[in-house]
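Sample 3 of the quickstart, ligand pyridoxal-5'-phosphate:
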Amino acid sequence: MDALTIAAAGALLAAVAWPLRGRLQLSRAKHPSLRGHARLAQRLAKLVPFYEYDSQRFFSSDFAPAGVAQLRRTGFERLSHRLWDRGAETIRVSDELEAGLSDLQFVNRYRVPFQYARYVRSHLKTGAVLKDSSGVVVRNLDGRPAYDLTGSYGVNLFGYDFYKECVDAGIDRVRDLGPALGAYHPVVADNVRALQNISGMDEVSFHMSGTEAVMQAVRLARYHSERSHLVRFCGAYHGWWDDVQPGVGTPRTVRDTYTLKEMDAATLRVLRSRNDIACVLVNPLQALHPNAPAPGDATLVNSDRRAHFDRAAYANWLRQLREVCTARSIALIFDEVFVGFRIAYGGAQEYFGVPADMVTYGKTLGGGLPVGVLCGARRWMKRFKDTRPTDICFARGTFNSHPYVMGAMHEFLRRIDEPQIRHSYRTLDELWSSRAARLNQLLADADLPVHVANLTSIWTICYTTPSRYNWMFQYYLRAEGLALSWIGTGRLIFSHNYSDDDFEAVAGRIVAAACAMRDDGWWWHTPELTDKAISRQILRELLAARFPRLLRQSAHAASWDTIGSIRSPRSR
Ligand SMILES: Cc1ncc(COP(=O)(O)O)c(C=O)c1O
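Result:
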């Protein structure tokens, strides 16, 4: 072989090997679950068939003996009455509302695993309408109080009365201008200054939701880096825009997002070697459950929900990300829409001691009104280039910097700067972790298969014994007068105005709810009932519903399957 041929073969090999190496590296950085493979998940989701349990199988989908199924049935009826007693009028008004409100139809459909959903919807009604709030309590139309554990999706950090005052005082401040848009009320300058101080960033832009703030951060990263891809981490939520939700839930095929493993060296290798990455998007709330999605009860099919917060380990991960992003000129974006102002005055940057290039805020920052905010270093925030006048990154919005929102935000920022609140941040971790430990002790003392994990005041409930019915727990909690958001026990969000007495009352109700659920037989257990066995059983059911003729026989043959009592649309 002459030198020219060898050189040509070498070049060819390099041309093939280099992209292959990149692909392999990327594959290794993907989470092995479907969550790490957005497009595949999207395709498979379309194949999942609908089936549901009839009124018999509903109570024995884990093959519990007849006596246990009867215990559950009786308990279910009692629970149904308790929920009706708490809010008959609320339920009536909510049902009327649902017919015309698509948002409510959606959440009501996804409160529990779909096999049980219709039966639950018709028998366990909770109502979705409230008439007032005060302290840590909300009240339904029937005047029945419930301790609020929804935190209004994280907005409610200091108690509803705090936000009522922010909105009222804020509107008073800007009333003379009213809803005049385009020009700015003078309070905007104060807000910008305060946010520059809190975030440590040069510039600020105001938007109308967290989703929009994240969208703008990613657009700016792509604009300045002239690179195509954003990196998000497996399971992380960043709003409902396509690029940050590339898998199930998005109709479009998203091609310029990499979903990678969090807290994993393989991801750092990808960041070090690829030239198409514009930004890395971090939702610090994932520290509570890295690589897993926001835990909702609709997907709670067994007991494999895991959560554990390790502050030092996550801080270390963020430091590694910071290093590689700096070295590779990748924008590091902290999405603090949820945790901003909650885990520390200076948010995740302060809490974990790692600076970002851009930070998004939202939720609580609006002082009770809707908002999204982006703060960033000047080099990332600029929307035009001095030397290329037509090369711009367009972003505007009719309601950006709305005077009423700016007024309420001004009030929020003023109040959280007062010594009492500034001081309260110092003991936050200790306070909420000791409360979580106290509840876990109470649950352990009562020998209940439930425990909680927390990142300050953001909690999630985990289950220690394999069960198909953990999603029922949300209804027992509601019957005890605890208000949960639609994702149920996956996310309990406390506002920081919970006193020790309020907390004791909530802890007592959680224990009482778990005792009632246990006594009603839902946590019945045999050694064969493992999380794996449950998952396998559900897979068999899915296959049998999808290929009824092919699999009916084998489904019957399996000891863990009685497919005959499953109803698919065709058999109904
Ligand atoms: C981390 C994070 N980013 C973005 C969003 C989207 O914010 P919004 O619902 O205001 O659009 C959320 C909402 O829950 C969030 O938690």
